[in-house]
């Protein structure tokens, strides 16, 4: 029996989907136009940029700030809590949900990735991919240049050191550094 769901429905549930599907291409085109507007709004007021974020994202809390330039796949899978801050040059690949909790601070050039690919090269060659959600708790600090990989959850109050590659979940209150990121002992 064939799967009756659209490629977008498959994507949103984290199942294998074809990345070059026309419906997804239209969504990608729409967010590309939005990114043009958002990234050109650097000199505009914080309220103007906040209203632009609310146009594209699933949910945006008060006082959330993203400093342009910013890039994402679709936008509609991103949820930002109250007072979230993303510095210049961040990228979120949001083929499935990305949730960032209240007051979380994210340094420049951080990448948050939900998109993943089959390990078999023949499957990858057919443009199949899938997503695994990323959840970042409240009061988290992620240093510049960090990379958050698909499926990771970062607990409340955690710290991710600059340049770290986070391949596994991070417990609440933990500090992780390195590639792959490892927990530092408490001070």
From TrEMBL:
Q: What is this protein called?
A: Sugar O-acetyltransferase
Give the family, as the similarity comment puts it. Answer: Belongs to the transferase hexapeptide repeat family.
PANTHER family (alphabetical): ACETYLTRANSFERASE C18B11.09C-RELATED, SIALIC ACID SYNTHASE-RELATED
Alphabetized InterPro entries for the sequence: Hexapep (IPR001451), Hexapep_transf_CS (IPR018357), Hexapeptide_acetyltransf (IPR051159), Mac_dom (IPR024688), Trimer_LpxA-like_sf (IPR011004)
Query: Locate the Maltose/galactoside acetyltransferase domain: which residues?
Result: 8-62
Q: Which UniProt keywords apply?
A: Acyltransferase, Repeat, Transferase
- The scientific name of the source species is Sphingomonas mollis
User: SUPFAM superfamilies under this entry?
Assistant: Trimeric LpxA-like enzymes
